[in-house]
Structures are given as C-alpha cells and as structure tokens.
Amino acid sequence: MEWDDLFMLMAADSGRARAAGGNGMKPGPDDISQFGQQSRAQRVRAAGNLVNLSTLAGLLVARLGGCTRQRGPYGLTLAEGYRFRFPVASAFTIGDVVITAHTFAALQQRMPRLLEHEERHSWQYFWCLGLPFFLPYTAAMGWSMLRTGDRAARNIFERHAGLADGGYPDLPVIPLAAQARRAAARLRNWPRSGRRSD
C-alpha cells in the first residue's frame, strides 16, 4: 500500500470517528473536558494504541512530566503542565495521550482545532503499529528541514494532521542546491563561531 493510500484510509477513519463523536466533535476552551460517546472507530483506535503500547508510553511520559490528566474529546487523554523542555512543541501526542506544558483552554484560544490535529496523530500511531511511528516521523521531519528549513512544513505526518490546525506555517520548498550552499557555509563558519573567547 502506498503512503498516500494509507493516509487517505486514516483520514476516512478519523472523519467517521469525529462525525459519530457527539459533543466531542468540536470542543471549545471552556468545555474540552466534555466528551461524547466514543464511536466504534475511536474504540478500535483506543484498543489498538493500548495493545501497541503507545498510549501506555504516553501515560508514562505524562506522569514523568508531572502532568495532570483529564479525559478529552475524540477518546483522547489530555495531560497539562508538562515540565520538561523536550520536545519543543505547543502540544505533542503519544498514542491517545496529548501532552502540553500549558493548559488546553489557553491553547485552544489560539488554535481552536488543535485537538483535531492531535487526534489525527493518534490515528497515525494506530496505523504505524505504535512506537515505530517515531522512525518514519523522524525521517519526515528531517526531509522537511532539508526542503524548507522547518520541521513541519513538508513533514507528511504534520501535513496529514493539518498544518494550520496544529499552528504550523506552510512554507515554500527551498531548492536543494540552495540548501547545500547554506549547509556548506554553516560548516565553514562552524569552527570560528564555535570558538570561545578567553
């Protein structure tokens, strides 16, 4: 199966889940803890992400990060107050757990569709069989950096999840020759810029 076919299937499942999700369909900043009855697709995804250990990994990361947790829409668990500085993101998802250093009410004031973006990532974990998701995601992030100088703009996973929904800009592609010249210039300047003055 080609990547485009896979993501079309993921998008269809995600859309069916949201359509059947009751008042979990479009949470606002004041009612993100309200969730409707989970659809069959959401229950399947939740079970799959438990079996593939990605949701358990997300709960562990949330616990280590000192987060408080609440149930959210789309069958997600929302974890607020993450205390570490990595990864650098307004929010990130592991399995069915969405983690942020902020509050989801504040984030949704700026990005009303953020949780829809993160739910699509939870489907990506499901289709990538859990934690192996990190391998293609890291490769896609490197490709995006190479082509645009940004980790999300040409990252196929972020594009499928919705760049604007996640607060990412859609940047133009930089020709590879120009990127190579920039990289060579950085390498030439690196010893000098890396020196420390005594």
Automatic annotation (TrEMBL):
Keywords: Membrane, Transmembrane, Transmembrane helix. The chain crosses the membrane at residues 46-65, 86-104, 124-146. This is DUF4157 domain-containing protein. It comes from Microlunatus phosphovorus (strain ATCC 700054 / DSM 10555 / JCM 9379 / NBRC 101784 / NCIMB 13414 / VKM Ac-1990 / NM-1). The lineage of its organism: Bacteria, Bacillati, Actinomycetota, Actinomycetes, Propionibacteriales.
